[in-house]
């Protein structure tokens, strides 16, 4: 597959980019080179390669969920810039 200037103009229009003629030619050459390089992957024999989502084995790294005693509300609200009725008071975001 090769990239032509019409392809670059189409993508630029979709991305709302205003490209001059020099940029169109530059991006045409660059994108064409990228696609030609990617086509080399088709030459690889991948018949006996297992499909993977990661190169390395990834396991769940989250800690076990355990119930802990909470901090007292007085201690938590000590760092609050403003509080009301035992809750953080923040500026209204709706009018």
Automatic annotation (TrEMBL):
<dbReference type="GO" id="GO:0005524">
    <property type="term" value="F:ATP binding"/>
</dbReference>
<keyword id="KW-0067">ATP-binding</keyword>
<dbReference type="InterPro" id="IPR003837">
    <property type="entry name" value="GatC"/>
</dbReference>
<comment type="subunit">
    <text>Heterotrimer of A, B and C subunits.</text>
</comment>
<comment type="similarity">
    <text>Belongs to the GatC family.</text>
</comment>
<dbReference type="InterPro" id="IPR036113">
    <property type="entry name" value="Asp/Glu-ADT_sf_sub_c"/>
</dbReference>
<comment type="function">
    <text>Allows the formation of correctly charged Asn-tRNA(Asn) or Gln-tRNA(Gln) through the transamidation of misacylated Asp-tRNA(Asn) or Glu-tRNA(Gln) in organisms which lack either or both of asparaginyl-tRNA or glutaminyl-tRNA synthetases. The reaction takes place in the presence of glutamine and ATP through an activated phospho-Asp-tRNA(Asn) or phospho-Glu-tRNA(Gln).</text>
</comment>
<dbReference type="GO" id="GO:0050567">
    <property type="term" value="F:glutaminyl-tRNA synthase (glutamine-hydrolyzing) activity"/>
</dbReference>
<dbReference type="GO" id="GO:0050566">
    <property type="term" value="F:asparaginyl-tRNA synthase (glutamine-hydrolyzing) activity"/>
</dbReference>
<protein>
    <recommendedName>
        <fullName>Aspartyl/glutamyl-tRNA(Asn/Gln) amidotransferase subunit C</fullName>
        <ecNumber>6.3.5.-</ecNumber>
    </recommendedName>
</protein>
<dbReference type="GO" id="GO:0006412">
    <property type="term" value="P:translation"/>
</dbReference>
<keyword id="KW-0436">Ligase</keyword>
<dbReference type="GO" id="GO:0016740">
    <property type="term" value="F:transferase activity"/>
</dbReference>
<dbReference type="GO" id="GO:0006450">
    <property type="term" value="P:regulation of translational fidelity"/>
</dbReference>
<dbReference type="GO" id="GO:0070681">
    <property type="term" value="P:glutaminyl-tRNAGln biosynthesis via transamidation"/>
</dbReference>
<dbReference type="Pfam" id="PF02686">
    <property type="entry name" value="GatC"/>
</dbReference>
<keyword id="KW-0547">Nucleotide-binding</keyword>
<keyword id="KW-0808">Transferase</keyword>
<keyword id="KW-0648">Protein biosynthesis</keyword>
């Amino acid at each position: 597959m090769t990239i032509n200037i019409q392809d670059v103009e189409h993508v630029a229009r979709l991305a709302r980019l205003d490209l001059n003629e020099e940029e169109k030619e530059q991006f045409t050459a660059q994108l064409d080179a990228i696609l030609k390089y990617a086509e080399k992957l088709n030459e690889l024999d991948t018949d006996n390669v297992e499909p993977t989502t990661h190169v390395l084995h990834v396991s769940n790294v989250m800690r076990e969920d355990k119930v802990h005693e909470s901090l007292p509300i007085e201690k938590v609200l000590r760092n609050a810039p403003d509080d009301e009725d035992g809750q953080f008071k923040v500026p209204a975001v709706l009018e």
